[in-house]
Prior knowledge:
- By secondary structure, the protein is an alpha/beta fold.
- It has helices at about 5-10, 25-35, 45-55, 105-115, 140-150, 165-170, 190-200, 210-220, 235-250, 275-285, 300-310, 345-355, 375-380, 385-395, 395-400, 415-420, 440-445, and strands at about 65, 75, 95-100, 120, 125, 130-135, 155-160, 180-185, 200-205, 225-230, 265, 290-295, 325-330, 335-340, 360-365, 405, 425-430.
- The protein folds into three domains: about 5-55, Electron transport complex subunit B, putative Fe-S cluster (3-methyladenine DNA Glycosylase II, Chain A, domain 3, Orthogonal Bundle), CATH 1.10.15; about 65-310, Dihydropteroate synthase-like (TIM Barrel, Alpha-Beta Barrel); about 325-445, 3-Layer(aba) Sandwich (Rossmann fold), CATH 3.40.50.
Amino acid sequence: MALSGLQIFKLLPKTNCKECGQATCMAFAMQLAAGKAELDQCPYVSDEAKAELGEASAPPVRRVTIGAGDMAVTIGEETVLYRHEKRFEHMPGLGVLISDEMDDAEVDGILEQLSQQEFNYVGQTLRPRVAAVKAADGAALAALAAKADEKAGAALVLVSEDAEALKQAAEPLKDKKPLLYAATESNFDAVSAVAKELDVPFAIKADSLDALADLGQKAVDGDFKEVVLDPSSATLGEVLRDQTLIRRAAVKQTFRPFGFPTIGFPCNMTDDKMQEAVFASTFIAKYAGLVILSDLDPARTMPLLYLAQNIYTDPQRPMQMDQGIYPINDPDENAPILVTTNFSLTYFTVSSEVEASKVPAWLCVMDVEGQSVLTAWAAGKFVADAIAPFLKKSGIEEKAPHKKVTIPGYVAQISGELEEELGEGWQVQVGVREAADIPKYLKQISEN
């Protein structure tokens, strides 16, 4: 049975040492109760407390990190079945399969894509980070893994059912935390022993959920924490069924053998590239922590990354830009001034239209806690007596002393009051309602 934060707190040392990363033992206890921390993070917890708390303090889905540095991928640590219940924690890592059956030019091309491919979306940089490396023997696997690390710095998934081959490839790169794939019913002891020796995560693969649960129980009994599950789903229906049942069992029933993140290989499920993208999108929507593709065609990777970003955005926290002045198209002191809110979608929509107009402009972005123009106006945050102090303190008068400011057309009713609040010399212009009309509007006012 799950314990409350207060029940857990009573078993902690109550030193408030902060070494766990929390300000107090009570805060740490609340994190444990929410499944957001591990008991091992407390250096002073007693053996008696460990025995009593046991698995009650572990997250429903364990946290696993593969890779290092900027390309590291953290998955798991999830606490809910549906995003609206709270939020999802870690975006799945998108990757590509590389094998020794490919020629050197093809491998080099994929690795170059992996090292350079990235997309900017509402202020976030999204990119594939994982290379799943497959080879027939240990020497080939080690060489291919070393190349992927050198050329792309990728988070590595080493694919082989030969424990010695996995060890040969992983040992030189153990500090990079490669994922060993995979332990099966026939080689579980050997692969898990390599993972334990090198202190790296490993994956469990089985042909059925029952067999996967048995192997998951062996991982739990062996006190392995960094484990990834693969139920070997072969069809779209199996993906939906297996991923949902694994997450439901972990979160709703605290079934520890399934309390690990999962991996999916849509690259192995079909030769049709568009169908592969459908499989990949289903893995992303239904909880997979790692999704491996056959190539990195941006026509597929970009929408998949955008999908993951949307699903894993915290619904309780609007995406927002920093408050400030954003110059667009190299504006000078005569360039028009526009003001809007710091909701990310509003900013990127407006800024892209301003940029497309080729008209230099100053875009003043006001902090309204990430709300859109109409929502912020209705909440009393994007109103005259709030906008005026923001503009005066922003420093825009030093950059563009003409004191003409354009407000969004949807809040035209505040124009008169805003002029009064801004004071003598200021002129408030009412802009357009739709962002698509911004280029035409800017060209008109720049000609006057």
